[in-house]
C-alpha cells in the first residue's frame, strides 16, 4: 500500500545504523521484525534494548529493528524466521504462531484473564514455562518474557457493540488464527482473517466493518481515522513473544546470549508498564479524535460462548495438561 511505502524509507534509515562510536562492524547481526508502527511502545522499548545491547557488548551484537511490517506481513515474517532469513520476530502466540503450534494460543481464550495480575502470574509462571517449552519443541527459541499488547476492544465504522446481538453477521477482521476465528464465529459474527499489515486498508475500503485491538494500537496505527466506535469488550488479552531462529541463536557466545537476554527481558518489563498506561490514558485522546466509546458488560458474551460450546471445544483441542495449567490462573472456564 502507499502508506506502507511512505513509512519504509524513513524507518529503514532509522533501523540500520549502529551508533557511530562502534567503528568496527558488528560480529553478530540480528534483524528483528515487528508488525506495528514505529511509535508503538513495542518498538520504542525494543529500540532501547538495541541501543543498550550495542553499548554493553561494545558493538559486537547489532539488533536491527524493522517495525511496521517493513519485511512483510506476519505470515511472511514467520516463514522468514523459520527459514533463517530473519533471525528474530515479535509474534503473538494467538496469531500466526498458532498455525504451527496450536496450543500457543491458549492464553487468548475468550474472557480468560480478568486482569494483569492473573495474566502475568500465569505467563511469567507455569503457563509461560509450558508454552515456551512447546515453542522450543517446534524448533524455535524464545525469550522468557512476553511483551504486552493489551486487552482487546472492538472498533467499528457502523455501530457500537453493546451485546452479542450486535455481532450477529458482523463483518470483523481477525488475525490469521483458528482460535480468533472460532471466538468470533461462536459470538455469531462473520470473521475474516487478515494480517495486521492490511488492516487499515481493509477498514478503509470496507472489506470489513470492524476489527479488535487495544487503544495503543488503535492510536499508533491511526485506526481511528477509519473507525467510528470503540466498544470496551476486553474480550481477550494478547502479547508478543520475542522469537528467534535456533540456528542463529544457538552458536552465539554465552556472554553475548546472557547480555542480549537480560536487556531484552528488562526492557519488556518497562514496555508492559507503558502499554498498560497508554491503554488507559489513550481513551481520552482517541475520544477527542472522534472515536465514540461505550462500556460493555461481558456476562452475555461469555454466556453466548458457553452456549455455543466454545470452551468445551477448545478444552478438547488444547488438551487437559495445558487446560489445567490455564485454569490454575483463571479459575474454572469449562
Ligand atoms: O494483528 C493484530 O491485530 C495484532 C497487531 O494485535 C497482533 O499482532 C495480534
Automatic annotation (TrEMBL):
Signal sequence extent = 1-25
What keyword terms does UniProt attach to this protein? Signal, Transport
Give an example GO biological process: transmembrane transport
Task: State whether keyword Transit peptide applies.
Answer: no
Q: Name one GO cellular component term.
A: outer membrane-bounded periplasmic space
Q: Where in the cell is it found?
A: Cell envelope
Q: Looking at the Swiss-Prot or TrEMBL record, what is one Pfam family this protein matches?
A: DctP
The answer to whether UniProt assigns keyword RNA-binding to this entry is: no
At the top level, the lineage of the source is: Bacteria
* NCBIfam families, sorted: dctP, TRAP_S1
Q: Family assignment?
A: Belongs to the bacterial solute-binding protein 7 family.
What name has this protein been given in UniProt?
A: ABC transporter substrate-binding protein
